[in-house]
Amino acid sequence: VGIAVYPRDGADADQLMRNADVAMYVVKESGRNGGRVFAPSMNAEFTRRLELEQDLRHAVERGELVLHFQPRVAERGRRLVGAEALVRWHHPVQGLLGPTAFVELAEESGQIFALSDWVLERSCAQLAVWHALGHRDLRVSVNLAPVEFARSDLVERVLAPLRRHGLPGRALEVEITETSLLQDQPEVADKLRRLRALGIDVAIDDFGTRYSSLNYLRRLPVSTLKIDQSFVHDLTAERPTAPIVHAILGIARGFGLHVVAEGVETEHQRQALAELGCDEMQGFLFGRPGPAGDVLGGRGA
Ligand code: C2E
Ligand code: MG
Ligand code: MG
Fold this sequence. Notes:
Blueprint: E1 2-3, H1 13-29, E2 36-37, H2 40-59, E3 65-74, E4 79-91, E5 95-97, H3 103-109, H4 112-132, E6 139-143, H5 154-164, E7 172-176, H6 178-182, H7 186-197, E8 201-207, H8 216-219, E9 224-227, H9 229-233, H10 242-255, E10 258-261, H11 267-276, E11 280-282, H12 292-296
Parallel strand pairs: 1-2, 4-6, 6-7, 7-8, 8-9, 9-10, 10-11
Antiparallel strand pairs: 3-4, 3-11, 4-5
Helix pairs in contact: 4-5
The structure holds ligand C2E and magnesium ion (2 copies).
One magnesium ion binds at residues 84, 143, 175, 205.
């Protein structure tokens, strides 16, 4: 419920309704099921988001999206195994925006489907280039949003760009968050199974930070766990996270899953992870997200 009060919040019915709407929007934003009285400060935020949402509508067609790739390595950083695709938006006025500034908005406004389709298409096009250069083992990971698992066409949407570029399923991995699994519907499991049957790997992103029930690990056909950056970062903290990383590696081993440590920034963290037995890593130490051309680096493009 959004509430606007005459005459403070509007001189006529139109204005009152508009401001009540703004207040209702704020309620929806903060998790629905509630009520708020309109405040003028709500307007600025609402207008800003509305404008950004409208701009986003044209971002794909105007070619404003940019796809960066961050290398993923194995064998203590010696071997490049692939890259994660991370989207950015070159906003005409606000400049280069990171995904945290607009992905959630895209999810709420339903534009995430067009955005992901673009990311999938660009990723596959890039993979085709790398494979043509002889790097046939390179794979790209694409982040998918929870809402995408609610729709029936997910598998077809992932498969289409692979087919278009003549790529095998194993060239692609999709990253999902624990939130996607929370929905715990049989349809989600079914989609994951179909992806895996096509050879497409399924990674759980930011593993260990959300409501990990762990129970899904035995029911869902996931293939990879990505250890959240916070655990990697605090490996050297006062209360180190090594026991958590150790536990995740143990669980992964038991289920036959791959593990990737995210956010590796220092030699010290790399060392600690290697000692714990974590083989695959990703982080600024090995390469920041950047243009596709940077990924191969000195590895012979
Ligand atoms: P994520 O999938 O967990 O991606 C890792 C994030 O950590 C990226 O931030 C990356 O730039 C950053 N990162 C990588 N290595 C390091 C490091 O060593 N240190 C630190 N401090 N950070 C590191 P980014 O690009 O801002 O992306 C943020 C989140 O936005 C991603 O988290 C992902 O959940 C989401 N996202 C990005 N691209 C897409 C996309 O195409 N679709 C969807 N649905 N979500 C996306
Ligand atoms: Mg990710
Ligand atoms: Mg992550």
